[in-house]
Model the fold of this input.
Amino acid sequence: MGLKDLMAQMRGLKDQAFEDQLYRQVWEEIQQGRMDPVAQAKSVEDGRGDDGLVRSAYIKHRVRRLRYEIEQRKEQELQESLRRKEAEAQRIAEEERHQKEEMEAQRIAEKSRLKEAGRRSSQQMAEERRSQGRRAEAEAQRIAEEVLRRRKQADAQREAKRITDERRRQK
Done:
């Protein structure tokens, strides 16, 4: 059984159950002949040639090493989890920055569009005023021509009446 499998079995175990599972794992390794070389070397040193002491020391050293390996693996998993969370936080921050930039660009574009629309409106209003001015000038011209026509007509009528009156007087 590998370290990952052992860790999966031990998740959620209380202290005593965790300790028992470590000893169970070491016992299975001994029975299968899969001895840890470091724990074996230390146990031979501690046992001073006594097989019972060597076996007892092996179990002690192997349990200690398994505990250490599990702690190391947990630390690695924690560090990896922290790296993933930090990368996710950076990705989110980058996404938010990009969204802010996008919103700012849209705001500037909208402001520019409104400014352009206002400029066009100003141009349209100026054109309308010029057009109204041209219409007013044309109307004033038409009225002036009408007044002139009527004056000429009135002058012609007066002249015709004067001539008629003069002819009557001559008769």
